Amino acid sequence: MNRETILIVEDEKDIAGLIAHHMEAAGFKVVVAHDGATAFKEMKNQPPDLILLDLMLPDMDGTEICKILKQKEATRNIPIIMVTAKSEEVDRIVGLELGADDYVVKPFSTRELSLRVKGILKRLKGVKEEQKVLKHGELVLDVDAHVVSIAGKRLDLTLTEFKLLKELLLNRDRVRSRETLLNNVWGYTFEGYNRTVDTHIQRLRHKLGSHGKMIATVRGIGYMIKEGTS
Ligand code: CA
Q1: How much distance in Å is there from the Cα of 220 to the middle of ligand 1?
Q2: Which domain holds residue 106?
Q3: 85 alpha carbon – ligand 1 mean position (Å)
Q4: Cα–Cα 20 to 30 A to 79, which of 9, 14, 33, 100?
């Protein structure tokens, strides 16, 4: 049987041990790293299926690790749950903007944590199976055929607009920051990027017509498509 691997990046050994114990009991294969450098080494040895990432590490900041992983093609699809001792809303938003898939605040229950882990992995499997054709209300995006239609009527989108829409649809209900969009759609970041993303979003909305409002602006962060909007 092929067990899914969870990489636990946590410098507090008691907490790391406790999480490891519960994840193993839940049927996962567990790898533990007590600092950032070891985490990267372990990821090279064996790419994990999910990463539990502590925010405060002795050699690196968890947010920094998250950012690096989400920028690399090879690692950007590995889900990350940020583990933080800080409960301030700002920290949470930062975590989400960095592309983390979820977060838990210490102290957390191990039961809750394993439910979150299982939830994300399950969701990811669903996305992988369905992602050839993405549907949102009357909108259909066919990944392989590179075709977008609304109520059967084909839209004329540029490659960038297509990729933007796909990225937002694949991450429904999650805010995508401008930086994340640049990384995942354009493949790099550059100065003055905000305007570039905004301009393309405006054009995309225009082409979607009355459905353009499905792309919501999240002030100060970026954009998102919410489930149930059209
Ligand atoms: Ca720590």
Answers
A1: 28
A2: 5-125
A3: 8
A4: 14
